[in-house]
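From the pipeline queue, job 12 of 40. The input is one protein chain; the requested action is below.

Action: predict structure.
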Amino acid sequence: MATSESVSETAEFEVDNIGGIDSTQVSIPPGVTVLTGKNATNRTSFLQSIMAAMGSNQATLKGDAEEGRVQLNLQGETYERTLTRAGGSVAFDGDGYLDDPEVADLFAFLLETNEARQSVARGDDLREIIMRPVDIEDIKNRIRELEEEKDNINDELANIEDRKTDIPELEQRRNQIQEQIQEKKDELEDKEAEIDESNQDIESSREDQEELEAKLDELRSTRSDLESTRRQIETQNQSISSLKQERSDLEDELEELPETPMGDHQHLEAEIEQLREKRQTLNSQISDLQSLIQYNEERLEDEDYEVLETLDDTDQSESNDSPTDELLGNGDESVTCWTCGSTVERDQIEDTVERLQERRQDLVEELNDVKSELEDLKATQREAKQQQNEREQIERKLADIEDELESRNTQLDSLKSQREELTDDVETLEADVDKLESDDFEEVLSLHKEANQLEFEIDSLESDLEDVSEEIEEIEDMLDRADDLRDERDELLEQLTDERTKIDQIEADAVEEFNEHMDAMLEILDYENLDRIWIERVEQTVREGRQKVDKTVFDLHIVRTTENGAAYEDTVEHLSESEREVTGLIFALAGYLVHDLYETVPFMLLDSLEAIDSSRIAQLIEYFEDYAEYLVVALLPEDAQALDDDVNRVTAI
């Protein structure tokens, strides 16, 4: 069973001007605390004070106060929030216990108007409420990042596999070069031996021989330089050819992209900004309506009919009908309206509150449509930005290639000039050698030329050997890295699996938690002929903005039995008020558990349980107390009597 980390310390609250509270100090020990009293005894106001201390803005300021305050002392830390009247609204300031109270407002602070608690009776989208705290867009972005990393690793591994197949051929080439080098060295050794023998047979002056040998050395060096230059020219030509091919490929890619991706979507930013403003306006309207609904419901519950604002006497004399009278008409049970001070029917005020709730639901649906359209526009804008970035990146690469081509063509021209100069030098040296030749030197000269050629060929082969060896070593290093890359890819795949299944797992866990605890609760409370209430996850095609998409929905099932034992499926509308209240509370508990609030939110609050009979309230509280360190419940005295005597009770606030 999941339980919160033990705080095991009494929480001390100081409250001024919250709801109907003037000033109070209340201690809440761990476990169950019951706020017991008749209506209009500030029980709900104190629950709001706890919510405010936790960081929630779902609290009201006392009608005749300009500023309110709540302070919480817990575990040696102090948390203080202030409420200040600002025109027609209330501004919150200070640091609460929670950095982000949104999830707690949904699933831990279960007052009468709590959205998760009321969702079953209102027929709300249960799946949307459970998933609301989940940043789905962040999960999608993380999946895209992980997939990109995985693709890069796959490309690198594929390249390594391709290069791996080159090793046998490269090793064969290396062996061949080594054999050729050894053969050339053997030939050179033989030539040098022949030169030594020929030198012994020649009778000539040492000076002539030295001059000839010097020319031969210079000729050999010049020929080596000429051959090296030719090789460089060949390398440059290959590089230029590769660059031209890359340029052609990039130009093809560029043609496939729009010329001005962002230019075609200049209207998007304005539309997105309009939708953001509309979303903000709708959020503000929904929040204002929720505060208005909550305030009126609390006044109805507490039977607080004290007039908060009275009309000016001159205004009353000018009009016989108040704004409320014009809206509602006449009724039997009349009360004093806390808005305008006129006498109206209580049930018609309740009808007005119901219409406000319906209006709020319409605004929520409109807000969802706006959010969906906003996401579509953002996706279009992201695609345009991506195309723009791709175009700019390709254009930068093309510019770099043009610079590289210009540089290599310049080097190529320089090498060609150098080749012409070396060719002329070789011809000149060969002519000089020819002048120094004589019949006596003809044979030794030929031997020297052959020896020079062999030395040049050996140098060239050794250069080739070095290149091949370096390439083999590079591939072997890549193969060594392949194992690390595979491990990294496996880790990425695990992360991808976690991210891809995160949403599905949360949905599945929520359904499992609800079904498990609903079964247990129904068995404990023993409602007549109510066998089971359970949620089924189903895939449906729904409309999101302008598109139809496949989406998971939570389908609520209710199963009853007739007097003769036959089972049949019922609807939410046929649930008793008590059954609906219990179902809503268990749904909120499922959200509390699936989002692990027991680890971060020490308080769970329950209010307005009067629709449930006393014995079942006691059983419900006993069930819920296992999941929160502090369970604070507002009850009427007659309902509180069913609880154990050792339960902490607060009778005066």
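Job complete. Residues 3 and 627 are 5 Å apart (CA to CA).
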